[in-house]
């Protein structure tokens, strides 16, 4: 499968000025930008910046960013599922995982997350993929957002809906371990029935093992 990547962009007007949301951004461009020090959800900012550059260099890897001038203040990543997770078991060429989405604290509340997802789906190539994401409440910034787990889940779900991702049932143990955890996915218009059925088998791994 050829992973065509077509660049798209849009701007968000905020009280502090305009933000540019763009992508997929190539690794050489990502390397030139500053990385906001508030982007700490997954690892130290300089380490996460390096990780984004590496993902962008993968054939299937996609990084969509929001930037304020030359500073990246938000991003979303797409790549093949982690080899250690069940989602990689089918070796599906048309299954991508939305692995991380993050917006720096000072820029939240401006629809940056929604716009990152909207721009992601502007590329027609995304209609050839199943896009999935696993949401675990222990990754959520409940303290920073001053929300309880269900309020945060509602906000997160609404944001994912902006990119066309909706809730899907699964028997995956970690997701099943708490009712706020969930699997969300978007099935592109050009995804084959065979791939949809394979995704169903991955979602209900326990059922198909017997």
Automatic annotation (TrEMBL):
- Encoding gene per record: acuA
**InterPro entries from the entry?**
AcuA, Acyl_CoA_acyltransferase, GNAT_dom
Q: What is the annotated signal peptide range for this record?
A: none
Q: What is this protein called?
A: Acetoin utilization protein AcuA
Organism of origin is Bacillus amyloliquefaciens (strain ATCC 23350 / DSM 7 / BCRC 11601 / CCUG 28519 / NBRC 15535 / NRRL B-14393 / F)
- Assigned keywords, A-Z: Acetoin catabolism, Acyltransferase, Transferase
Enzyme Commission code(s) on record: 2.3.1.-
* Any GO molecular function: acyltransferase activity, transferring groups other than amino-acyl groups
**Subunit structure and binding partners:** Monomer.
A GO biological process of this protein is: acetoin catabolic process
């Amino acid at each position: 499968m050829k992973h065509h990547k077509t660049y798209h962009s849009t701007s968000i007007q905020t009280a502090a000025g305009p933000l540019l949301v763009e992508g997929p951004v190539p690794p050489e461009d990502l390397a030139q930008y500053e990385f906001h020090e508030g982007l700490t959800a997954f690892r130290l900012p300089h380490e996460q910046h390096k990780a984004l550059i590496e993902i962008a260099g993968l054939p299937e890897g996609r990084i969509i960013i929001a930037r304020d001038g030359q500073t990246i203040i938000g991003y979303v990543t797409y790549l093949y599922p982690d080899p250690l997770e069940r989602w990689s078991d089918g070796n599906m060429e048309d299954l991508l995982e939305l692995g991380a989405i993050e917006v720096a604290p000072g820029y939240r509340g401006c629809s940056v997350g929604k716009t990152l997802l909207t721009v992601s789906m502007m590329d027609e190539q995304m209609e050839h993929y199943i896009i999935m994401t696993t949401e675990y409440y222990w990754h959520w910034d409940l303290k920073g957002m001053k929300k309880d787990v269900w309020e945060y889940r509602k906000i997160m779900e609404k944001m994912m809906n902006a990119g066309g991702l909706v809730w899907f049932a699964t028997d995956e143990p970690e997701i099943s371990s708490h009712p706020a955890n969930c699997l969300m996915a978007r099935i592109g218009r050009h995804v084959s029935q065979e791939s949809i059925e394979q995704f169903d088998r991955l979602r209900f791994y326990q059922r198909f093992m017997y």
